[in-house]
């Protein structure tokens, strides 16, 4: 993979945050002054370092699975150059638009990064082991890292003995490595009198996730095992990494592999499902158990909602409705359904989010979780909700108990039991009768007119934010549903939770705008929380790398 920013005069390669700030200082600290540097945390990623109001901001740019580049939650662009061009026209959540590139001083080349040398070393090691070559440190890598590399090998070609010099570009040996870090073909040849090995490859995990190839290797090295709770111990301090959502097995759909997609069906075979006795939780319908689902090429951990056998047909129908809704959704911030299994009882098989409900997690880890960690999780929830809004689905039960954690830094929306798909021309769903409703999370129009829309989900999102920023407390204290209704009707709203940042309380209040027509939608909500998240994450003392209440910095 060549460095997509190598040609940019304002690209500094692998330099530290402090060095970037030095360059910006020397260049005058004008608003919108910016430079680009390599991200040390994710392969192919960058960091946009910029100045606004004499402050530094550092925005991580991720290389996404489809090869595009985006600032978290922002629009995707085909390259870092296009991304910078876009943000020079529109701040779109950044502290200000990019105005002036801070170019490298003459004679200064972009600093090679850790990934570059790691990549080279991996190839050397691979060649050494596969072809039993000694002295691979003398191999020189020639071609750019697109889909392959040419290595010049001094000495003999081990498979063929001595070659006659002068046989330009002739292939001598083709092989298809099937293990090791690379897949693809390789050929030995003789180029200009020196033996060479051409490797054309895709990195082994590229079929699954090109981005995570190296980063996951790095994370495995840096982080070590998960602790007993299943949470990665949170690193504190600059340069330490933590797993990003895309480094987990539940970021992409299990069916993103075309081979697996061939088998995708709503109904799963019972003999592909192993059910553990461990119960993850329970509801009216029955219980949720841990399990493993065997796919064509892999086995995945799953959560299985098992319907109680004595349940009536209506409950069964409800579970099937939930399955039908979930089947249509595919987003990293929403618990995906794998399928339904009809055997000893009706079972809904879902992706596993082993961290459990957000409210319970926050209540139990109150002393360890930072505000920026909560903002990060709530931003992810807003991204999931923005996706639902775009797909014209209403959730109708968004609450902290229905936000499940994959880990401390990765949240997914779950429980689609009350959800509805809206018709193409409908902006709301009208419930004929009131049911067992979570009134404290419901907007006035839901309670008064039974009208549910993405805007009423926004109201619930505000209540979920309140729960999160108060570390899992119950909303509206001891009030009963009808008391809450009159409290809202009087124009009153819940107070700002103790440690909650003012900006986040303002957003909650906007979510609790009485008239749905005036309430923001999820596009606006996501944009607001993203801007705030960036503004705190870009400041060294609040970097999103901090998981506990200590200070840490972004790369
Ligand atoms: P629900 O009825 O969907 O709210 O599920 C009841 C409980 O089961 C939740 O509160 C979780 O503790 C657990 N649970 C549900 N879905 C999952 C999942 N996909 N992964 C892990 N735990 C889950």
TrEMBL record:
Q: Which GO terms label this protein's molecular function in UniProt?
A: ATP binding; non-membrane spanning protein tyrosine kinase activity
Q: Which organism is this protein's natural source?
A: Cyanistes caeruleus (Eurasian blue tit)
Question: Where exactly are the transmembrane stretches of this chain?
Answer: none
The record's CDD domains line, in alphabetical order, gives: PTKc_Zap-70 (cd05115), SH2_N-SH2_Zap70_Syk_like (cd09938)
Q: Which reaction does it catalyse?
A: L-tyrosyl-[protein] + ATP = O-phospho-L-tyrosyl-[protein] + ADP + H(+)
- The molecule here is called Tyrosine-protein kinase
| Family according to the record | Belongs to the protein kinase superfamily. Tyr protein kinase family.
Domain called Protein kinase: residue spans = 274-533
By its UniProt entry, which InterPro entries does this protein fall under? Kinase-like_dom_sf, Kinase_SYK/ZAP-70_inter-SH2_sf, Non-receptor_tyrosine_kinases, Prot_kinase_dom, Protein_kinase_ATP_BS, Ser-Thr/Tyr_kinase_cat_dom, SH2, SH2_dom_sf
Taxonomically, the superkingdom here is Eukaryota
Pfam families, from UniProt?
PK_Tyr_Ser-Thr, SH2
Q: Which residues form a coiled coil?
A: none
Give every SH2 domain span. 10-102
E.C. number: 2.7.10.2
Arranged from A to Z, the UniProt key words for this protein are:
ATP-binding, Kinase, Nucleotide-binding, SH2 domain, Transferase, Tyrosine-protein kinase
Q: Where does ATP bind?
A: 305
Q: Which gene encodes it?
A: LOC111940227
